[in-house]
Design a protein that fits this description.
The protein is mainly alpha-helical.
Amino acid sequence: MTAAELIRNRRTALGLSQAELAARAGTGQAFVSRVESGRTTPTLPVLQRLAAALDCDVVLDLEPHR
């Protein structure tokens, strides 16, 4: 699952609109839309703000190529 899908799924599970998530994360609704559609990739600090606004932690994992 992509970061965009994870963010969108968590937001909708919490019953938040994009505008509400944006307000909580200190960003704009248009930016949240671009992230959720995969048109932009947030920096790690912004991803952390989005996660905090979604009451989540960011967990990174590196796996070797198969």
